[in-house]
Amino acid sequence: MSRAVLACVVIALFALLPIAAIAGPTIWIYTDAETYDYGDTIEVSLAALNLGNGMSVDLYVGLLTPDGGLYTLSPYGVSGWSGNIEAWIPDIYVPPDFSMIRTPLFWFDVPSSMPPIGNEGEYNFASVLTGVGNFDQWVCNASLAPFEILAEGPGGHFYVNATSGDNGNNGLSADEAWKTITHALEQVEGLEDYPATIHVAAGTYASSTNGETFPLNMKSYVSLIGDSPDKTILDAEGTTYHVIYCNGVNNLTIEGFTITGGKAHGRLSSPDSSGGGVYCYNSSPTVENNTITDNSAHYGGGICCQDSTPTISNNTIRGNGGISTYYGTE
Predict the structure, then answer these.
(1) What is the spatial distance between Cα 146 and Cα 148, in angstroms, rounded to a whole number?
(2) Which of 86, 101, 121, 324 could be a cystine partner for 66, CB 3.0 to 4.6 Å?
(3) Distance, CA of 304 to CA of 316 (rounded, Å)
(4) Residue 173: per-residue pLDDT
């Protein structure tokens, strides 16, 4: 969506009544730059001018996101953005012959990683003054400050390819895929509003093939999706207790793999004795459409889940040593 279209949307959302005389109070909003990388701090300033009589107004600061979402800055003293239309500073008096243009009237910093900012794209800050307690009564034009986030924030889609990938790549496309899943999990973060998916190409992921290391330590809001169980093999080659390890993680999916080669024969009553293929503790992953085979453990050769609420569906679990699946509570 172009900035011109975004500006029109903002005006359409805000401009509910005709604008009052130019001689009334006016507000402007601006940023210290036009483009930012994810993680940069955005410095936002507001300037004001009143060539008319003094009056009390409500001050709104809005944000229009690339997907057309509209948010307002939460009332002064409350952190964050609201999906409701709320005045940032209600009932503020603007004296007559007032001018704060060269020196900002208000200013604040906004992390570009604060939702709803974060995904790359074009945004607009907006500001407007209205009558006290009456959003329909505008006293000036809405001011817009367009800016762009250049880099992707948390979440999104990332790619791994054991054959053609390189851990020096950025992982943002199949052509720029990383080589190992371990590296991808170290790089990728997900949030509730910005979940992430790591797409794993067909191939065998093992120490002897692409230098993969195990276990794969999963993260909340970061899903791992393989090409298919027949084509995407996670093989720990008997070098570790677990192929996949979930500890205190939620809202993630593990799908489309053959999971093999985990040997959890460590000290009894410890996690090292359970879950050769997949081990879960205090976690709620979704494990579906996988083949879990040729793993072993004292408990749960294929899968062991303790103090967890997983969703396990449509998996082929066979040929695992020890109890193949185990749901413990101790």
Answers:
(1) 7
(2) 121
(3) 15
(4) 84
- Are 295 and 301 a contacting pair, CB within 8 Å? yes
Query: How many secondary structure helices (H) and strands (E) does the chain include?
Result: 2, 30
User: Given the structure tokens 């593990």, which residue do they identify?
Assistant: 254
254-289 confidence digits (pLDDT tens): 999 999 999 998 777 778 889 999 999 999 999 999
Q: Phi/psi at 18 (nearest 5 deg)?
A: -60, 150
How remote is the C-alpha of 225 from its chain's centroid? Answer: 17
176 phi, psi to nearest 5 deg: -115, 35
Measured CA to CA, the distance from residue 266 to residue 299 in angstroms comes to 11
Question: What type of residue is 109?
Answer: D
Rounded to two decimals, the pTM is 0.59
Taking the alpha carbons at both ends of the chain, their separation in whole angstroms is: 54
Please write the tens of the pLDDT for every residue from 181-204. Answer: 999 999 998 888 779 999 999 999
pLDDT tier for residue 3 given thresholds of 50, 70 and 90: very low
Cβ proximity of 134 and 90 under 8 Å: no
286 token code pair: 């979704």
* Residue 219: its H or E element: none
Q: Are 317 and 301 in contact (CB under 8 A)?
A: no
Distance, CA of 196 to CA of 189 (rounded, Å): 7
For the chain, give the longest Cα–Cα distance. 84
At 191 the pLDDT is: 84
- Kindly report the average pLDDT of the chain as a whole number: 87
Q: Show the tokens assigned to 59.
A: 């001050």
